[in-house]
Amino acid sequence: RASALNRYSEVSGYGLTSAIADWTIRLGGLNHITEMGQVTFGTEFLSALAKQVPKRTRKAMQEIYGFSRQEIDTILNTKTTINGVEYLDPRNMPADIRTRFVGMLREETNYAVPESFAKTRTLLTQGTKANTVRGEIMRGSTQFTTFPVSVALTQLNRAWNMGWKGGIPYTAGTVFGTTAMGYLALNAKAAIEGQGALDPTKP
Questions:
Q1: Which H or E run includes 80?
Q2: pTM
Q3: Which of 82, 117, 106, 91 is nearest to 3 (CA)?
Q4: DSSP 99-146
Q5: pLDDT surpasses 50 at 27
Q6: Which residues pair with 86 in a beta bridge?
Q7: How far apart are CA 60 and CA 66, in angstroms?
Q8: 94: confidence class by pLDDT, cuts 50, 70, 90
Q9: Which residues touch 6 (CB under 8 Å, ≥6 apart)?
């Protein structure tokens, strides 16, 4: 629930408004959707690593997350089986490796199930305090941008880490995919309102 509330933390504030925002999220099911997405990705991620680790994944673990080859081998030797399915089990990793591995898992989860984080809120509010004139102006003007900015920062960061060769196709695919999904969402809304399909060639 806390991860879902992060999206509205700069809007809802505290007290009554915070309680209203909390119940709105509860009734809308956003917190459950977010948590289910995070748990599902984490489970699939641990299962995929237990089955096979492609060369590019090993390279990313070394270059981005700082694991050595020996540490990667140690990680891959922590397999456990649950209901006939193999998973990596962080509990079987040495403490120092486990901490970094869980951090990597958390980072990858943020790519798969985006959520607002402290860096974005700090960037948008410029370090201003709540209940001050400047602080409230900053929060009011950016209250609906925290989540999209978080998505943009995480995706741009990943593209940057890929370099020119991988970053350009990745960015193009992300832009195309999000644009297509936005178009489908607008068409779904138009269909519900009885307006028919939208013409993408007309603004």
A1: strand 79-82
A2: 0.63
A3: 117
A4: HHHHHHHHHHHHHHS----HHHHHHHHTTPPTTSHHHHHHHHHSTTTH
A5: yes
A6: 81
A7: 9
A8: very high
A9: 115, 116, 117
Residue tagged 């960037």 (tokens)? 123
CA dihedral 104, 117, 155, 124 (to 10 degrees): -150
Q: How far apart, in whole angstroms, are the C-alpha atoms of residue 1 and residue 22? A: 9
AA letter at 31? N
Tell me if residue 23 falls in helix, strand or coil. Answer: helix
Q: Which amino acid is at 182?
A: G
Per the structure block, which two tokens stand in for 156?
A: 């741009």
Confidence at residue 87, expressed as pLDDT on a 0 to 100 scale: 92
The token duo for 155 is 């995706």
pLDDT of 34 higher than 60: yes
- The pLDDT assigned to 67 comes to 92
Q: What confidence tens digit (pLDDT) does each residue in 102-146 have? A: 999 988 888 888 777 667 777 777 777 777 777 777 777 776 677
**Is the distance from CB of 17 to CB of 25 less than 8 angstroms?**
no
Rg (CA), the chain: 21
- Rounded distance between C-alpha atoms, residue 202 and residue 175, angstroms: 19
How far is it, in rounded angstroms, from Cα 99 to Cα 93? 9
Calculate the CA 100 to chain-centre distance. Answer: 18
* Residue 56 · residue 63 · CB < 8 Å: no
Helical H segments across the chain, by residue range: 2-5, 9-12, 16-28, 30-51, 55-63, 69-76, 95-112, 118-125, 133-141, 146-192
